[in-house]
């Protein structure tokens, strides 16, 4: 019964603003003034899941991922962990995002 | 250039009591002023250090202690998240990259043993196998004090979990939790894209408790005197005292220990303000401008500041005098903040200079209302789009400037730039490396 809706999440450090994702999925992803993707925070609509997967696969920096809600995207700044609720956000793509995160 | 340090006073301010008594139940709690910072005097003032135990977490919970680095997250919840994990790590964050704040440096220099007590008690309580105290490598007085204190403790007794001191790069974002953990793991002191969060997998991939150094100091006192004692000052929502750094247009800039909820006007009065503040920047460069007219009766605590759309942050209060231009100050700081980006995320790398440039246009009175619309659009565009909160902080800070200095913007639009900025807000440190 429980259908997991998934959201697109971008790793802003890995992302280079190629823009392929926005071309594949303009319904969900638009680009800012500098070409970087702005992603609709809502879960991906059922009809678009296939395209969303294609966008994830097409990213040359492996910066895009589909994650189960709730999304913890982009909130790394302050010291605010969410202790008891161990995260749902460990999907098949998490490992790849981890690799792409490598710095310098 | 113009660091807020220098001849700083470290004063304690209690509205109920004129002069500080040696009784630890009154102010000063954290900073005993000119008292000997040595271990013997420390224990004579506060009594011996209690051991760690699950009781400590419950008492910290009952005390309502929240993080004092800016995040304001409940400390007990963070402790519970790592407690009992095998070989977890405790990190005390004293990096204090915010130029308008010097309370962590003052605390480390003035009460090193209180911070070390807190680290020790917390480490024992959560069963940590490692404890690290991080200090900005430019903060030489603080480093000297904690190194001497650690050496002294090794001679007199052994902390169950010895504390190691690490010095960190002098960069604004180096103290961000994930950046600090990345640095301690041998990487750059730049934020990483989370999850996992440090409490899940931090230093050496172990669950890691990261707290501000002031938080540990409060913890050391709560473990000694209990939650009720802690709550005897402050408000119900924000119990206890706080270290605040007052800088700018006041006669006595410095670090003050105040009860949470004290009127901001009272703090400025004690720091030698002239009562004619044009505006006050609360919470540093990720904080918000507050118009001078609203300052007098505004209670200084996280809950009250949030209610008026401001932030308490790390407790920094910078006063803009009547003679300074808030718009020019904001533009200058926006440029500095843009240079302090870790340079990793596109929206931050491109957005912050764009915002600062548009602020320059507002200062010059160049493109009028169009420039303001452009800034507001870019503020929205960068918000929430970095791996860390750096762009969010800049966005909140700049947006508050547009609101608070609206009349100033209009004046610039009509009459062009005003007198050159006196440079009230410190931006002295130059950008250095990340290791």
Describe the protein's architecture and organization:
The complex is a heterodimer of chains A (104) and B (435). Helix content of chain A is 21%, strand content 15%. Chain A has three helices and four strands, in the order E-H-E-E-H-E-H. The N and C termini of chain A lie far apart (44 Å). Residues 71-104 of chain A have low confidence and may be disordered. Chain B is built from 15 helices and twelve strands. Chain B has helices at 39-46, 54-63, 75-82, 103-110, 112-126, 140-156, 177-184, 213-231, 264-270, 302-307, 326-339, 346-364, 368-382, 390-404, 406-415; strands spanning 9-12, 88-94, 128-136, 163-168, 208-212, 241-248, 254-259, 262-263, 279-282, 288-291, 299-300, 316-320. In chain B, the strands form three sheets. Chain B has a six-stranded mixed beta sheet. Chain B has a four-stranded parallel beta sheet with strand order 4-3-2-5. A two-stranded antiparallel sheet of chain B has the order 8-11. The model of chain B is unreliable at 1-8 and 15-24 (pLDDT under 50). The chains are: A alpha+beta (104), B alpha/beta (435). Chain A binds chain B through residues 11-17, 32-36, 38, 72, 74-81, 83-84, 86-87, 89, 97, 101, 103-104, and chain B through 67, 69-73, 77-78, 80-81, 176-178, 182, 187-188, 190-200, 210-212, 344-348, 350-351, 354, 378, 381, 384-390, 392-393.
């Amino acid at each position: 019964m429980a259908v997991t809706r998934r959201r697109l999440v971008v790793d802003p450090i890995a992302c280079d603003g190629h823009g392929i994702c926005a071309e594949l999925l303009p319904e969900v992803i638009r680009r800012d003034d500098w070409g970087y993707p702005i992603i609709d925070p809502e879960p991906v609509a059922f009809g678009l899941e296939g395209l969303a997967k294609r966008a994830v696969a097409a990213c040359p920096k492996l910066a895009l991922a589909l994650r189960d809600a709730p999304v913890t995207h982009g909130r790394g700044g302050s010291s605010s962990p969410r202790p008891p609720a161990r995260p749902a956000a460990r999907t098949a793509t998490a490992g790849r995002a981890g690799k792409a995160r490598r710095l310098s | 250039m113009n660091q807020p340090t220098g001849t700083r006073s470290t004063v304690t301010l209690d509205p109920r009591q004129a002069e500080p008594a040696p009784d630890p139940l009154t102010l000063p709690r954290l900073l005993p002023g000119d008292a000997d910072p040595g271990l013997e005097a420390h224990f004579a003032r506060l009594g011996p250090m209690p051991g760690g135990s699950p009781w400590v977490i419950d008492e910290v919970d009952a005390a309502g202690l929240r993080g004092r680095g800016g995040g304001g997250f409940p400390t007990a919840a963070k402790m519970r998240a790592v407690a009992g994990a095998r070989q977890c790590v405790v990190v005390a964050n004293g990096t204090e990259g915010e130029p308008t704040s010097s309370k962590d440096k003052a605390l480390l220099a003035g009460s090193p043993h209180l911070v070390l007590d807190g680290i020790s008690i917390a480490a024992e309580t959560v069963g940590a196998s490692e404890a690290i105290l991080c200090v900005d490598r430019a903060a030489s007085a603080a480093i000297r004090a904690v190194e001497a204190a650690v050496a002294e403790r090794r001679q007199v007794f052994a902390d169950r979990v010895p504390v190691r001191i690490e010095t960190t790069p002098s960069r604004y974002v180096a103290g961000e939790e994930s950046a600090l953990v990345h640095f301690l793991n041998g990487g750059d002191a730049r934020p990483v894209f989370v999850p996992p969060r440090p409490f899940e997998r931090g230093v050496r991939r172990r669950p890691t408790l990261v707290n501000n150094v002031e938080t540990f100091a409060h913890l050391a006192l709560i473990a000694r005197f209990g939650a009720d004692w802690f709550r005897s000052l402050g408000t119900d929502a924000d119990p206890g005292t706080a270290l605040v750094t007052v800088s700018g247009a006041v006669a006595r800039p410095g670090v003050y220990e105040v009860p949470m909820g004290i009127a901001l006007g009272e703090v400025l009065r004690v720091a030698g303000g002239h009562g004619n503040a044009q505006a006050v920047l609360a919470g540093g460069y990720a904080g918000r401008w507050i118009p001078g007219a609203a300052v007098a009766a505004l209670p200084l605590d996280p809950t009250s500041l949030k209610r008026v759309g401001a932030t308490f942050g790390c407790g920094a209060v910078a006063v803009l005098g009547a003679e300074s231009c808030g718009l020019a100050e904001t533009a200058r700081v926006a440029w500095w903040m843009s240079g302090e980006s870790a340079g990793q995320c596109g929206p931050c790398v491109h957005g912050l200079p764009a915002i600062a440039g548009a602020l320059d246009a507002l200062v010059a009175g160049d493109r009028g209302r169009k420039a303001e619309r452009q800034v507001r659009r870019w503020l929205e565009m960068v918000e929430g789009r970095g791996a860390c909160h750096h762009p969010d902080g800049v966005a909140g800070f700049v947006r508050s400037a547009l609101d608070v200095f609206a009349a100033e913007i209009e004046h610039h639009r009509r009459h062009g730039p005003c007198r050159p900025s006196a440079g009230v807000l410190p931006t002295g440190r130059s950008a250095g490396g990340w290791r």
